[in-house]
Design brief:
Blueprint: E1 14-18, H1 21-24, H2 37-42, H3 60-74, E2 78-82, H4 85-88, H5 98-113, E3 117-123, H6 129-133, H7 140-157, E4 163-168, H8 170-176, H9 190-215, E5 221-225, E6 229-232, H10 237-260, H11 267-271, H12 284-288, E7 294-298, E8 302-307, H13 326-329, E9 339-341, H14 357-370, E10 375-380, E11 389-391, E12 399-401, H15 404-422, E13 427-433, E14 452-455, E15 460-463, H16 465-476
Parallel strand pairs: 1-2, 1-13, 2-3, 3-4, 4-5, 5-7, 6-8, 7-10, 10-13
Antiparallel strand pairs: 8-9, 11-12, 14-15
């Protein structure tokens, strides 16, 4: 597709937008909800750069009718949201909290009434604190409890859900939560991180089984991965080897067990030579390897790596762009000896990430060739910038955000999806991240990804040019 041509997406292509419970809901102490690991992490001095928390966030717990109206105005056909686990099971081994279930049932029904398909993520990082106290994701029991949680949601929500997504970005949960401590629960122990990798994989499989047992084999299942699009700095064997080592723990520890039923060759030996892999039990891979209908991909940037040779010093950038700041994400994964991440080049987004739309095309095409029977969905894509509010009497409310850089990023990445489809990739949906500015994890409220601005003092929603441009793309079903 060249710059002058127009690409029309398939008639059944899904346009959506997305949020996550902890980032937008607020109402942290209402209707029986108890603390998650992120509530605890936010209370730790210095853990979140602006000292903020998710107690109020975007107040979507109360304002969801307003936000669904915004989705309706955008014209999107789907909304990707997550459920807060501790709203459903507030205590360890305790009863189901009906108030929590009822809240999400109201949202699902309102979405359906507005012809917006609910894409429900079971886990978007907010593990109940009581489960972390019992060992967290390094503990096998957490995966078992996740299966129970999935079964409860499936029994309650039934066919109201269009697509079930088991996990969001387990890479971040394992490596940032338990590897370098940049995310909740803030643990720095790579043995725990690798155990978490396996138990997240196991949780995915158990959830797929539980949902299909409740809803039926026709339940539409997915998982969302933030696969790292890693480029070798040169074509030298050494740099290509560095890319291969980076990809092993970034991507293959998820793709291979979930979609092929195996752990990739060399992963046990490459870890550190000492990690006890007895957490992988007989029969686990059969549980993990469940058929799924769609593979979600969250994409923001690429990372360039080279072989780090003796005398080069310590790598000065993280392997993989997922996460907020380079210093918080350096050495995020284990077994990266000999791998150096290079500083990003070109104009960087407000997160310090590069802009390489071609990377999105490339990963979609590669996945399409490797897994031709699975639909691909871009479940997050977006950019953070330092927005400014302008007065404009011609728009409702008189306020607007002109964000040409976000508009350009959006257009180029939608074009990248179009190129992937033209190349044969079976891409069936695109979800803009995010509907709203929100709590950006360890960066608090200092970064804004929304296509609609939130004034955190008043909770007013203010349209950005990027939101209006996205609505145009959705309406035209073309770029």
């Amino acid at each position: 597709m060249d710059r002058q041509s127009k690409f029309t997406f398939p008639s059944d292509f899904t346009w959506g937008t997305a949020t996550a419970a902890f980032q937008v809901e607020g109402a942290a102490h209402e209707d029986g909800r108890t603390d998650s690991i992120w509530d605890t992490y936010c209370a730790r001095p210095g853990a979140v750069v602006d000292g903020s928390n998710g107690d109020v966030a975007c107040d979507e717990y109360h304002r969801y009718p307003e936000d669904i109206a915004l989705m309706k105005e955008l014209g999107v056909g789907a909304y990707r949201l997550s459920v807060a686990w501790s709203r459903i099971f507030p205590t360890s081994g305790g009863p189901v909290n009906q108030a929590g279930l009822d809240h999400y049932l109201r949202i699902l029904d309102m979405l359906r009434d507005n012809r917006i398909k609910p894409v429900v993520t079971l886990y978007h990082w907010d593990l109940p604190q009581y489960l972390q106290d019992a060992g967290g994701w390094p503990s096998r029991d957490t995966a078992l409890r996740f299966g129970d949680y999935a079964s409860t949601l499936a029994s309650s929500f039934g066919d109201r859900v269009d697509t079930w997504t088991t996990l969001n970005e387990p890479w971040c949960t394992a490596y940032l939560g338990y590897g370098n401590g940049a995310h909740a629960p803030g643990i720095k122990d790579y043995d725990q991180a690798l155990a978490a990798v396996h138990h997240l994989n196991l949780a995915h499989g158990l959830a797929c089984q539980a949902i299909r047992a409740q809803v039926g084999q026709g339940a539409r299942m997915s998982v969302t991965l933030n696969l790292q699009v890693t480029r070798a700095a040169t074509d030298s064997p050494e740099d290509l080897g560095a890319k291969e080592r980076a990809d092993l723990f970034a991507n293959e520890v998820w793709l291979a067990p979930m979609l092929e039923g195996v752990y990739p060759d060399g992963v046990e030996q490459a870890a550190d030579g000492e990690t006890d892999w007895r957490f992988v039990r007989d029969g686990d891979l059969e549980i993990i390897h469940q058929p799924i209908d769609a593979l979600g991909l969250n994409y923001y940037a690429t990372t360039y790596v080279k072989a780090r040779r003796v005398g080069d010093g310590t790598a000065n950038a993280s392997v993989g762009p997922e996460g907020e700041l380079a210093d918080r994400h350096a050495n995020a994964m284990p077994a990266q000896e000999g791998v150096e991440g290079l500083a990003p080049q070109g104009e960087l987004t407000g997160m310090g990430w590069n802009q390489e739309p071609q990377g999105l095309t490339d990963v979609l095409v590669e996945l399409g060739r490797r897994f031709p029977d699975i639909e691909l969905m871009v479940t997050e894509n977006g950019s953070a910038w330092d927005d400014q509010v302008s007065r404009d009497p011609s728009v409702p409310g008189g306020l607007v955000v002109h964000d040409p850089k976000r508009v350009a990023y959006l257009e180029k990445h939608v074009q990248a999806v179009a190129k992937a489809i033209e190349a044969g990739a079976h891409v069936t949906g695109y979800f803009a991240w995010s509907l709203l500015d929100n709590f950006e994890w360890a960066l608090g409220y200092t970064k804004r990804f929304g296509i609609i601005r939130v004034d955190y003092d008043t909770q007013e929603r203010i349209w950005k040019d990027s939101g209006r441009r996205y609505a145009q793309i959705v309406k035209a079903n073309a770029i």
